[in-house]
């Protein structure tokens, strides 16, 4: 199908393009250039100070990557973290949004309180949680020991399963409110009349939620899911500050592994190949979401 | 427009780094060299009132500081002008061109006053790239009052440490009291710990012929002891696997552990007036395994000062470096702060007779062992990372000790062959 544009439309488009172009330029500079640079780096060998020029080595780094158990582990960690935290955040986010949409005294204060964790920088949040998890001085163990729930300190961040669980909890605590914010905006755009009509038909609150609210929230939910999944797939500050990827490599995300390869081993080329794979994973995930979203429309 | 002028001002502030010729930035932690840094800076300011030194207090956890340096040096940042670096990086940083050669900037007489074996760590292609500031090692700290309470002798061997830990922990009956604490998080300090254990059993990174032998029987035995100490005998807390030096020190200082194994610097906070254990602790050399009394089990470290090749004030930086590491400053740091001098002549000074703690550190250094940074050069960070990871795998019982050390051996062989 072809679309014909009138001359007026064409002129409008030119004007629109003129307005968008500065932004496009900036995006190209700060987004597209580094992506291309990473791809170029990943296909070659070079020294960081430029003393040895870039040299094409084909798929050498990707071949190493395929054999690298630490890479596969970090990919698995990243996917597990995403798969565990996103659904929890979504459920909690919807619940919070529905609550905040009700009329009650102190609603403004409640909204502020819910947004607070999200407004704080992740690094700061994480350090706070790390203290609460601390085996010897932390809040959780103090409570667990004094109440008799545990007879010796629990090593929250030193056990493979507990460490992952701890990381998911911090993430859910922090970003559920972000989900809630987007979904709340969606909730407020649902016309009141639909609920009135529903009530006349004798719908229960639960039916209202399932038949009216949820279907009309599909758009905002998708947006929230895409943004949060992309975020979770490149999580860095959280494991970096909470566990440094430990114990062993149980919480080492792709970003954290790439960072270690680049800055600890000073291997920019191999590090770039990890980054490129990560980019592809995120890209594929976004495509998947967008395709599902469009199909349903 | 307000916004525009604000934006311009911000941009100007970012570009116009104040280019006063006589300003230097020094990067060094606040713990390692302790109060000596402040004293040296005060003395320098007195002698050079027209030069401003900005002290950039970096982390005392080496891995964290290293990341900071790597970022700045890769980007050819002109600051810091002078920076402190771990002995294990000296060779690598020199090779990467991240340290200004000092032979042209300082006189040969000045350089010749330093301990030649320390200097060799930063010598690449016949040129000295950084001056040693102080040396340190790990020691075994213990609670004198607890040993007395349970009628125990100061443990010399690991077998005795284990037995004593069990007696004390049984007696104290406190789930939050531990026998042995140290820095077993996945950090450089863990590798230092491991070297202390395996060398104390007659093992080491290399065999008698100098071949890489991470998985030699003596190492497997000593590593198994570490695993059992933690997982079977529970003489150490689970949290030891998250502990950095100061975490372990804090527990010991609060009276929650009988034994502590970390570097020299903890002596100052432990003996401070407000320390609950100030008059209840002492230290001895790192234990060894039965039958290895002459083993070199004190893992050594040390810090250097070097000049950033991109510094805009290299001449001034060199003079500052010379002042900071000079005889008088080292003497004061030795007597007041127990920091081991790197100029051998300082030890000859009659005032050194009063520095008893330092003398005791020194007799532990006689059993010193260094990390394999000279043998592995710029590959050292990878080697250390592999060791940290595989030792952690063993301690967490993700792999058997034998598997972990075999894997380490294979991986390090591959790295060294690259």
What does this protein look like?
The complex is a heterodimer of chains A (297) and B (418). Chain A has a single domain (68-296), classed as MetI-like fold. Chain A has 13 helices and two strands; from the N terminus they run H-E-E-H-H-H-H-H-H-H-H-H-H-H-H. Chain A has helices at residues 7-42, 60-67, 69-101, 107-119, 122-133, 139-146, 160-188, 192-200, 205-216, 218-233, 237-242, 254-263, 268-296, and strands at residues 44-45, 55-56. Chain B is of the alpha/beta class and 418 residues long. Chain B folds into two domains: 2-135 and 301-368, 3-Layer(aba) Sandwich (D-Maltodextrin-Binding Protein, domain 2); 137-299 and 370-417, 3-Layer(aba) Sandwich (D-Maltodextrin-Binding Protein, domain 2), CATH 3.40.190.10. Helix content of chain B is 46%, strand content 16%. Chain B has 19 helices and eleven strands. Chain B has helices at residues 2-15, 36-47, 62-74, 87-95, 108-112, 116-119, 144-149, 158-172, 188-199, 217-231, 245-253, 267-271, 314-324, 327-337, 344-348, 356-365, 373-376, 380-395, 401-417; strands spanning 23-29, 52-58, 82-86, 123-124, 127-128, 130-143, 178-182, 257-263, 281-284, 298-307, 368-369. In chain B, helix 9 packs across helix 18 and helix 18 (380-395) packs antiparallel against helix 19. Mean pLDDT of chain B is 90; it is low at 1-21. At the A-B interface, loops of A face helix 3 and helix 18 of B.
């Amino acid at each position: 199908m072809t679309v014909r544009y009138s001359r007026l439309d064409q002129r409008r488009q030119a004007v629109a393009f003129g307005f968008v172009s500065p932004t496009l330029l900036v995006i190209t500079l700060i987004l597209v250039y580094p992506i291309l640079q990473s791809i170029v780096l990943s296909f070659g060998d070079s020294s960081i100070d430029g003393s040895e020029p870039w040299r094409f080595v084909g798929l050498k780094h990707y071949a190493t990557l395929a054999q690298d158990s630490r890479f596969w582990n970090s990919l698995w960690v990243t996917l597990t973290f995403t798969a565990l935290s996103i659904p929890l955040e979504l459920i909690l986010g919807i619940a919070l949004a529905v609550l905040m949409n009700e009329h009650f005294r102190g609603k403004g204060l409640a909204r502020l309180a819910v947004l607070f964790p999200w407004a704080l920088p992740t690094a700061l949040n994480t350090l706070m949680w790390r203290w609460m998890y601390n085996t010897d001085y932390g809040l959780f163990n103090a409570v667990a020991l004094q109440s008799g729930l545990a007879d010796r300190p629990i090593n929250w961040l030193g056990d493979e399963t507990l460490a992952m669980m701890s990381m998911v909890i911090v993430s859910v605590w922090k970003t559920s409110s972000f989900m809630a914010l987007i979904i709340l905006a969606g909730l407020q755009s649902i016309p009141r009349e639909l609920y009135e009509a529903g009530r006349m038909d004798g719908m229960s609150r639960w039916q209202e939620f399932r038949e009216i609210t949820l279907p009309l929230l599909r758009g905002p939910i998708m947006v929230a899911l895409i943004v949060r999944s992309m975020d979770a797939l490149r999580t860095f500050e959280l494991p970096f500050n909470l566990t440094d990827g430990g114990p062993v490599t149980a919480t080492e995300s792709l970003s954290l592994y790439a960072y270690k390869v680049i800055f600890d081993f000073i291997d920019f080329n191999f590090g770039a190949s990890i980054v490129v794979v990560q980019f592809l994973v995120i890209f594929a995930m976004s495509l998947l979401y967008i395709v599902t979203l469009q199909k349903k429309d | 427009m307000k916004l525009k002028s604000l934006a311009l001002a911000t941009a100007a502030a970012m570009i116009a780094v104040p280019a006063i010729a006589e300003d230097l930035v020094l990067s060094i932690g606040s713990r390692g060299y302790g109060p000596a840094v402040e004293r040296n800076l005060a003395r320098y300011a007195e002698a050079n009132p027209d030069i401003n030194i900005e002290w950039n207090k970096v982390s005392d956890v080496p891995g964290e500081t290293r990341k900071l340096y790597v970022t700045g040096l890769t980007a050819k940042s002109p600051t810091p002008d002078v920076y402190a670096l771990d002995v294990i990086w000296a060779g690598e940083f020199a090779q990467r061109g991240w340290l200004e050669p000092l032979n042209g900037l300082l006189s040969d007489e000045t350089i010749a006053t330093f301990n030649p074996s320390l200097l060799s760590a930063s010598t690449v292609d016949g040129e000295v790239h950084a001056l040693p500031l102080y040396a340190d090692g790990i020691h075994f700290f213990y609670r004198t009052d607890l040993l007395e309470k349970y009628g125990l002798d100061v443990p010399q061997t690991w077998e005795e440490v284990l037995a004593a830990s069990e007696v004390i922990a049984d007696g104290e009956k406190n789930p939050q009291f531990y026998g042995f604490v140290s820095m077993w998080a996945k950090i450089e300090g863990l590798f230092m710990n491991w070297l202390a254990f395996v060398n104390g059993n007659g093992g080491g990174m290399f065999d008698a012929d100098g071949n890489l032998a991470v998985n030699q029987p003596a190492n497997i035995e000593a590593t198994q002891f570490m695993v059992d100490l933690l997982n079977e005998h529970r003489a150490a807390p689970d949290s030891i696997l998250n502990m950095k030096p100061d975490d372990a020190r804090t527990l010991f200082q609060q009276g929650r552990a009988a034994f502590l194994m970390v570097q020299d610097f903890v002596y100052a906070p432990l003996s401070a007036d407000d320390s609950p254990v100030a008059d209840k602790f002492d230290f001895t050399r790192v234990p060894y395994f039965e039958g290895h009394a002459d083993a070199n089990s004190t893992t050594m470290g040390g810090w250097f000062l070097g000049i950033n090749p991109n510094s805009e004030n290299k001449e001034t930086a060199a003079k500052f470096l010379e002042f900071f590491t000079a005889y008088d400053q080292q003497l004061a740091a030795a007597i007041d702060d127990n920091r081991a001098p790197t100029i051998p002549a300082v030890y000859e000074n009659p005032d050194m007779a009063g520095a008893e703690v330092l003398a005791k550190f020194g007799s532990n250094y006689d059993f010193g062992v260094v990390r394999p940074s000279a043998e592995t050069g710029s590959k050292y960070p990878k080697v250390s990372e592999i060791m940290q990871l595989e030792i952690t795998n063993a301690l967490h019982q993700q792999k058997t000790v034998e598997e972990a050390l075999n894997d380490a051996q294979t991986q390090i062989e591959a790295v060294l062959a690259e």
